[in-house]
Amino acid sequence: xxxxxxxxxxxxxxxxxxxxxxxxxxxxxxxxxxxxxxxxxxxxxxxxxxxxxxxxxxxxxxxxxxxxxxxxxxxxxxxxxxxxxxxxxxxxxxxxxxxxxxxxxxxxxxxxxxxxxxxxxxxxxxxxxxxxxxxxxxxxxxxxxxxxxxxxxxxxxxxxxxxxxxxxxxxxxxxxxxxxxxxxxxxxxxxxxxxxxxxxxxxxxxxxxxxxxxxxxxxxxxxxxxxxxxxxxxxxxxxxxxxxxxxxxxxxxxxxxxxxxxxxxxxxxxxxxxxxxxxxxxxxxxxxxxxxxxxxxxxxxxxxxxxxxxxxxxxxxxxxxxxxxxxxxxxxxxxxxxxxxxxxxxxxxxxxxxxxxxxxxxxxxxxxxxxxxxxxxxxxxxxxxxxxxxxxxxxxxxxxxxxxxxxxxxxxxxxxxxxxxxxxxxxxxxxxxxxxxxxxxxxxxxxxxxxxxxxxxxxxxxxxxxxxxxxxxxxxxxxxxxxxxxxxxxxxxxxxxxxxxxxxxxxxxxxxxxxxxxxxxxxxxxxxxxxxxxxxxxxxxxxxxxxxxxxxxxxxxxxxxxxxxxxxxxxxxxxxxxxxxxxxxxxxxxxxxxxxxxxxx
Length: 601
Ligand code: JTA
Known about the structure:
The chain has helices at residues 48-58, 62-68, 84-91, 140-151, 177-180, 200-206, 224-234, 312-321, 326-336, 364-375, 405-413, 437-441, 457-460, 512-515; strands at 2-5, 8-11, 158-160, 188-194, 216-220, 240-244, 258-263, 267-272, 284-285, 287-290, 346-350, 353-356, 387-390, 430-433, 470-471, 484-485, 488-493, 499-506, 517-519, 524-527, 531-536, 548-549. The protein is α+β, with helices and mostly antiparallel strands. The strands form 5 sheets. Strands 11, 13, 14, 15, 17, 18, 21 and 22 form an 8-stranded mixed sheet that branches. The two termini are 16 Å apart.
């Protein structure tokens, strides 16, 4: 079926159409036409390993990337010489991996035997030495940066991932995964990595040499062939165990991105938005919340000890218990032994299931609704404060806004303290931030950045109404206008966008699978996926006014308690020429920053 529309002329093959009914994403298969098109499996699920293979095929060699220079500000047609940002990339002081990117993190293990699923099994007590050829010379700059970040004044503990190719000052408050795993953050005993997409060989190399053989638990949602592949990848590493999160509801995915880092000195929790693959830590805008170092409780401390004002400890334990895994129960025991009382954020998760009565408010958008009702302070005129959602993928939201976006999503996101009943919720504006085609085309990665923005034409064409709420990606304040968002954030801002009532960073995209959708006339909330995020409320940071001031300039020394919103406010509406990025249709009208076009399939 060939169609001409909003999005140009394209064709949908019949096998594509059923793919993305519920979850965001759908069943893509993106490789450049210039290379050989490849058809993918016919399952309803998109596997992360397939995405990686497709992405790898798309990658030009980094030699080519170097010769071209990274012209981040200009389209290739106007390309002249490497910009300052380009030089910044080449000279990046904290780059301790000199090897060309295309040669980094390539391929996986070649072992052919399948590893036993580790979820219920005992940890193999092995100190097997890893076959490491990788040279890691921790640069002193990186060490200094990490130390500053740990001890400097960042009361929110909210960070962005480092981006290659931008001015180094914009990376001064940013973290690479190697920074997070650095010995400066703690002497690792064992760790758990929760994620969606995992390159095991690459992940192991992100740990400092001295920690590479410490027990590592990988919690994932892969099934069948992709699960077998992950097991093969992990096989060479005797210290790596895998835990498959149960996904009993169709189209669910394990999106949660969390690290549990158990140290000799205590415990740290990291909740973030990056997959455990090189591309996700290279040139994307990603969010990271670092917990404080949680000290061990004295022996014999009460079960209830070490709780925070935000109930973070017991919420984290509830989240982990929802996996129903003996392996994760071991981590629950470790958490119980620590003092998490310094935590100032609220945990907000989703876990697959159908929830009724008191269970309904534990997860998804009803959990946010409850938190805001209980803890958000009332500020005058809050009815007119817009809700802003920013995400990297979009699910099927129905025939119009009344089906889910306004009835469920907005009703939860505009909740206020019980005293304040919002009567005029139809007046609360919603602004949605999602990259345009030009955003992607002019990005540091170019069109391949769109491989992580899996909004499909099959979904988009059913909800053209949604696109009237869309705003461009723009992030001059964080120097990340050309680093495409893989971060997901939600907030309530004042009409002049100088204040925010609350801020959420999460793995959850704009989808019913992530946030939940009512069933049984609202008596039941059905959630398909695992998601995790943290909610910042002003009251937890000693602000009685009921809002955070928005930090205007990331590089300036504004009051420490102004919040570093990672993109530009006010959001800028799509112009008539703008279209949302849709990943499975071709873009051949103009080349990207690397001189390439985008021709999926
Ligand atoms: C490309 C994805 C995630 C996540 C989930 C993705 C898909 C395609 C990138 C991604 N799904 N997909 O949780 O981080 O089609 O499912 O980055």
